[in-house]
């Protein structure tokens, strides 16, 4: 998993969510704390963690940003292997850990500068602690509560792992004493998590863009969990999962972990949409466990039917484990093209490095710049060197000083005054902003759009190739200046 996570980790560009992590984590702790009161409280602990990580490197970049996720994914693979070894046998753990590592979904989020891979590690660690408690290998419940609390503080929707654990306790027919201790641990987690839940409820508009999930969402996450979206590997994993459900000791842990969090979140999202595949990445850990134990059952059935010519049974030894490793290798090779594509910027929603390259090439010191809409400023925040010396005409107060993500802009009157003195202006514009699909909701953005359309003419346009090229860089000149001829 570590090798797969490091492979192509410097893919050549941050996308919008990673850019938020990058620019927020480089603020001071008081500035981060102030920001969380207005936005992104759900990622607060992660931002503070990344603040410490980025401080290690004097000039942090994309690789340092993603290293915690790579390490989190590697830890998750190890924890999945430990679960398989404890709940079944060592070779099941070996197969499950390797299968988790080669699953494209795990590799994708191992290279995201966001919290999801770390949340997956926390959920797997909490599940292993629960199994140890149920086995009697551990007595103290506070480590379990601590790991769950930290995991939920990294992302509050990780709390659904507790729903999976409750189902596990019910299926395992845990006694009253176990239930009582588990409820106390959950209560402590609730006390720790309550302030975050209260604050984040006031910031719910941040996920207002999420749609109501349907059967397509369920099918997509199922295919993502099954070591790849298509082909014989997918159907082979489905068959092995069904076989694995017959191994009760493991299935009562892995089954709820795989099914309950996505199912509950999709159910809640029918009323209030909050579902996204990345929010339930931690549930992926259950799938390779079921596949691996299904493979173990299949190997056992085949082994019982094999006998030497004299009638003596063929012993099941180390070659069986190696055969399982070979099967995982075949699965990896089957989806190698998908892994390769995933290590390019094209697999993310946008590539802020693209517009920054254009800005570094075209914009000179002192040139005025507008960002339309204001969130297009994220390219300058992610790659400030590309916009060094440019004059941000609309910016009134920077993000760190204002306690916002992208800063506060001048009001409509002040913005018109600033634009009145410009004969030429570079506009970093998102593809949808000039499409005529409606007026911007922000007053400053409406002024930018109106002034540019009424008083300026397009002189140059620069766009990076690719479906997710992101923002476009345009040079506008005032109409009277445009009529006098080229300005450069």
Protein architecture, described:
By secondary structure, the chain is α/β, with parallel strands linked by helices. The protein has 2 domains: 2-347, no CATH class; 352-483, no CATH class. 59% of the residues lie in helices and 7% in strands. It has helices at residues 2-6, 16-25, 29-36, 44-55, 62-87, 90-102, 104-110, 116-135, 142-154, 160-171, 176-201, 215-225, 231-244, 248-269, 286-304, 318-334, 336-342, 352-362, 378-382, 399-402, 412-420, 443-455, 479-483; strands at residues 368-372, 391-392, 395-397, 408-409, 424-429, 456-462, 472-478. The strands form 2 sheets. Strands 2-1-5-7-6 form a 5-stranded mixed β-sheet. Strands 3-4 form a two-stranded antiparallel sheet. Helix 19 (378-382) links the parallel strand 1 (368-372) and strand 2. The chain is elongated, with a radius of gyration of 26 Å. The protein starts with a helix and ends in a 5-residue tail after the last helix.
